[in-house]
């Protein structure tokens, strides 16, 4: 897992081609994490409690990463976020989302001085690898991946010395059980897990924007073998995504690692296009080699070996 810690935000004037620091400068198929610097107001008031919101973007798509975002500020500052237009990222235009995140990165902007944030982009490759592990090992389902990344991001903020008091999370699965899990992991914090948290709590709205913009830009800047600009939103129901999957498919290799091969959508597409089936035979067991013991190589079963007991007790 690649970590991109404390990369400096671009404080240049607003641009129409903003690329947030949460997007790796060199495109990668591996999971990456970005953590911003602690905002000025939090540094100057270490005794004041902070709130933190958690949300994700890209849970359901068959193409691209799933991005988790957190955003935090002083509790007394949180209501101010609404004044800048933070809301559920799905209700905002792409331009508005980009402008908001750019404000969080602009060194002279009020938001940059008051709000910290972080993201983890779980790559499609890592999602699929975890979900397609052999049964004897046990797969790592999407909920477990989401929970673990959420806890890692919260922990990173705490490790920076931020005085967190309340964490608000947009739910993944049943709210009650998820809240209990987080509360056990962070017993000193107040935890609220809620449906539609991104529309209720401003700090979650901010996290939602951070996650959504990061995912969208990751799709546009991918250097995979295919042109992801034509893949639409990446959701299975998107006609542009369906068209792109059908037109980009390779009969043997499928697609690049920007596609979640563990998704049923990808499996169905491979079958519909008569892709080549690959069958992996069972691995041959490694023969026991007793050569170093001076024993016959034919005697590979312990029950056939003569065992001396003349040393016993000496």
Short description:
Endonuclease that specifically degrades the RNA of RNA-DNA hybrids. This protein is α/β, with parallel strands linked by helices and 314 residues long.
How would you describe what is shown here?
The chain is an alpha/beta fold and 314 residues long. 34% of the residues lie in helices and 14% in strands. It has 11 helices and 7 strands. Strands 1-2-5-4-3-6-7 form a 7-stranded mixed β-sheet, sandwiched between helices. Helix 7 links the parallel strand 6 (164-170) and strand 7. It is globular, with a radius of gyration of 25 Å. The termini are far apart. It comes from Komagataella phaffii (strain GS115 / ATCC 20864). This is Ribonuclease.
The strands making up the biggest β-sheet line up spatially as: 1-2-5-4-3-6-7
User: H/E series, N to C?
Assistant: EEHEEHHHEHHEHEHHHH
Largest sheet descriptor: 7 strands, mixed
Strand % is 5-15%
What is the CATH class of the largest domain?
A: Alpha Beta
Keywords, please?
disordered C terminus; Nucleotidyltransferase, domain 5; 314 residues; seven-stranded mixed β-sheet; alpha/beta; Arc Repressor Mutant, subunit A; 2 domains; 11 helices
List strands and helices in order, with pairings:
Blueprint: E1 2-5, E2 32-35, H1 40-44, E3 50-57, E4 66-74, H2 80-83, H3 94-105, H4 110-114, E5 116-122, H5 124-131, H6 142-159, E6 164-170, H7 175-185, E7 190-194, H8 197-200, H9 202-221, H10 239-248, H11 264-272
Parallel strand pairs: 1-2, 3-6, 6-7
Antiparallel strand pairs: 2-5, 3-4, 4-5
Helix pairs in contact: 3-9
